[in-house]
Amino acid sequence: MKRLLILGGGTAGTMAANRLRRRLSPTEWRITVVDQSEAHYYQPGQLFIPFGIYRPSDLVKPRRRFLPEGVDLVIAEIERVVPEDNKVVLADESELGYDYLIIATGTSPRPQETPGLAGAEWQQSIHEFYTFEGASLLGEKIARWDGGRLVIHIVDMPIKCPVAPLEFTFLADAYFAEQGMRDRVEMIFVTPLDGAFTRPVASRHLGAMLEERKVALETDFMVERVDPEKKRLVSYDEREIPFDLLVTVPLNMGADYVARSGLGDELNYVPVDPQTLLSKAHDNIFALGDASDIPTSKAGSVAHFSLELFEENFVQYVRGRPMIQLFDGHANCFIESGRGKGLLIDFNYDTEPLPGKYPLPGLGPFTLLRESEANHWGKMLFRWVYWNLLLPGKEMPLEPLMSMAGKEVEATVR
What we know:
The protein has 414 residues and is of the alpha/beta class. The chain folds into three domains: 2-106 and 255-317, FAD/NAD(P)-binding domain; 117-251, FAD/NAD(P)-binding domain (3-Layer(bba) Sandwich); 331-412, no CATH class. Helix content is 23%, strand content 27%. It has helices at 11-23, 132-144, 164-178, 200-212, 256-260, 300-317, 373-390; strands at residues 2-7, 29-35, 39-41, 60-62, 71-75, 78-82, 87-90, 95-97, 100-103, 107-109, 126-127, 148-154, 185-190, 215-218, 223-227, 232-235, 240-242, 245-249, 252-254, 285-287, 331-338, 341-347, 356-360, 364-368.
């Protein structure tokens, strides 16, 4: 019997287990998922916890519930992969062998990588919302905060869900306005990028939205350290930005076992072919979702679209046939902009986010690069879609490859 081992039971790992269990004969294939936690978190919802829109209990469910019958679940920490022996060593030194390995352990924030960030002010005047605990503590902080200088800060790219810091900023602006205290809050968005976002067209649009909301934009800021005593961000070019409340997105990195196994780059992401997701170093290892180094957003939509193509590719590959379903880096992201509205962006490796309608050309119901109530509801309804359609690997009426249908190409020139 052949052995497929999936490291990570998050979005990508769970979708892979569901899709491949249906395609691979249970009499010929044993599929095992390894994760260190029994709990599965709806990570996009963490953005809403600080503003009381979601409760922490809304975002967590048992991991086992979303894995199909015929998939084994091992709860354990991973020590290392030994690719030359086709085995994974767990923290208790037990071993799991494999014929094919999928790495889907994602990415996580590392505040300790920035001097001073995880110091005395961590979870006091310095917070983050990229973890379940962090989002919950930030919600408690905001509920009792009486105003001052709020700095929203990105340490470096890439990060999970690169629109989330902007969404937090827009939601904070709306929240403080609703509380009648927006005039007591000075907001600054600090980024290592040369604009508000990674893609120029979207960056100009989102930068204008920051300006409309009276949020200052500080670009090209490469943080060298945080001074917790003076409550200041300090850049390598010696700029200083003081704060009363710092909401930071720490450096994101892949799992530590990837480094211990010699499988990753300097940030522990696995180098793969960006079209097939096959490891560049090992012909029986794939990396899915946020765990890979593909040059597109680390977002759930990327995991979803790539998995639709990966499923068929993997089935063909293990039969000795070529992988012909080539992923184009397709990503789309709802951007919550506050006050009951949102945007949607749709792009891939080569094509910028463009205005238009999605997914039906001319009809939508979602508008691209423009705020609308429909986009807000698309964002809010996605939680149901995630639990009921996406994780179980059910078919969704969205094309995995980016389409130019409905896009307004000429609008970017004017």
